[in-house]
Specification:
The protein has 434 residues and is an alpha+beta fold. It has two domains: 194 residues, no CATH class; 221 residues, PPM-type phosphatase domain (Phosphatase 2c, domain 1), CATH 3.60.40. Strand 2 and strand 3 form a beta hairpin. Helix 2 runs parallel beside helix 4 and helix 8 crosses helix 9. The chain is elongated.
Length: 434
């Protein structure tokens, strides 16, 4: 059983039918002399509890099939039924009279049955108050059960005894009709989920197609990337903007939130990135252009971004960011955090993005990443954090970029509890100057 609302109706239906069957079995079994004495003593108590609570459980099963004002009515029946049950069971415990409040329970049951029959029988009401596409079987089962119940009660009041089999058959038909309706709802939910999963698979393929299929070949640079979405689609994005065989720009962006909304914004960044090619040598202008294009479309979401330009021929780099985690520069035994941040996209129409100019030399290693690398938490709630990231980078300075990436991802997986899924999208770019 998956713990979803569409499945709970089957659980309540099973409890309801078990209670109904138990009422038919308890009294005859209690009279069997060979059964344990404790069962014979407990049987009246169990019978009383079931007798008062079966209406509450039945209402709870119907609650899963209802919507709108019918749900409020059923909730009221449940609360009133519980009050009667508590009072009735208490009276039985103190006086031994288990039927004292049964008339009130029966009146409540009659009111409930009248409302349900009306809703099920009238198509307009059924469409409004039931979460079912086809109520036909449910309507037939409910009406047959109602007719049987009315006939049994009227005949009993006139002194005519009816066979108990009719009561059991009436409930069996009623139970089958509700079970059929419940399965209709479950299968409809499964079909919707299957359709959504197919659409997400297509969306994942489309999103994968907008990301670079391979790392570009730039003289004196060795580039490795890792992209690990948390769900089927992600809000992370990265792009390479080659200028010539010696110069290249690296763009990394992270949309707030997860799933489809974030992925749609990430796809928009792909389109917007095509417009910054003419200004790819100016990191601040790249970020300003992206902010202008995206701001009108973000609504309540925000985007952090970082842009690194590397000129391998002239041995220099330029960096700017918009609310993004700092760039890491590993040089020899030193590890520097390069921060040159303006505000995130979507806050201001004309922000300022300061640029950091840096000389580079062979052996330098640049690391761009999104916050999915540093935010995962362990069992105690401690984040992976900047310090752990820097520790892994220092301990693996001599490793090639690919091995560093694999090691870092492995450390993140080990940091998180095995029972928890990945907590955020992860994007990681490692660039070695050779």
């Amino acid at each position: 059983m998956r713990r979803r609302s569409g499945m709970r109706v089957l659980i309540w239906l099973g409890i309801w039918s078990a209670m109904y069957g138990a009422l038919r079995l308890i009294d005859p079994l209690a009279a069997v002399a060979r059964l344990p004495h404790w069962f014979q003593v407990c049987a009246p108590y169990l019978d009383t509890v079931i007798m008062y609570l079966i209406l509450v459980v039945a209402s709870r099963a119907w609650l899963e099939l209802s919507t709108g004002k019918l749900r409020f009515f059923l909730l009221a029946v449940i609360f009133v039924g519980l009050a009667i049950a508590v009072a009735g069971i208490s009276v039985f415990l103190f006086t031994g009279d288990r039927n004292k409040l049964i008339p009130y329970n029966n009146i409540l049951a009659a009111c409930l049955l009248f409302v349900l029959v009306t809703v099920v029988a009238v198509p307009k009401l059924a469409r409004k108050f039931l979460v079912l596409s086809d109520r036909g079987v449910l309507a037939v089962g409910t009406l047959l059960f109602t007719v049987e119940a009315l006939y049994t009660n009227v005949a009993g009041s006139m002194g005519h005894r009816t066979s108990a089999i009719w009561d059991s058959l009436g409930f069996a038909v009623f139970l089958f009709s509700i079970g059929y309706a419940a399965l209709q709802m479950v299968f409809a939910t499964e079909r919707r989920l299957f359709s959504i999963e197919n659409e997400l698979a297509i969306a994942r393929d489309i999103q994968t197609s907008i990301l670079p299929s391979s790392s570009p070949e730039i003289k004196n640079l060795r580039i490795t990337t890792a992209y690990r979405p948390m769900a089927a689609v992600a809000g992370d994005f990265y792009e390479f903007i080659p200028i010539d065989q010696h110069r290249i720009g690296f763009l990394v962006a992270d949309v707030s939130g997860h799933g489809v909304p974030a992925a749609l914004i990430a796809s928009m960044i792909k389109v917007a990135a095509q417009t910054v090619v003419p200004c790819a040598q100016d990191p601040d202008e790249v970020l300003r252009v992206l902010n202008r294009i995206l701001s009108a479309q973000l609504h309540d979401q925000f985007v952090t971004a970082a842009y690194l330009l590397i000129d391998a021929q002239n041995r220099k780099a330029r960096y700017s960011a918009a609310g993004h985690p700092p760039l890491l520069l590993s040089r020899g035994s030193q590890l520097q955090r390069i921060e040159s941040n303006g505000i995130v996209f979507g806050v201001s129409s004309d922000p300022d993005y300061p640029v950091r100019d840096m000389p580079i030399c062979p052996g330098d290693r640049f690391i761009l990443y999104t916050d999915g690398v540093i935010e995962p938490e362990n069992a105690t709630g401690a984040s992976f954090g900047d310090s752990k990231l820097e520790e892994v980078v220092r301990n693996n300075q001599s490793r090639p970029p690919l091995e560093l990436v694999d090691r870092l991802l492995s450390e993140i997986r080990q940091w998180q509890p095995a029972s928890l899924p990945q907590q955020d999208d992860i994007t990681l770019i490692v660039i070695d100057v050779v």
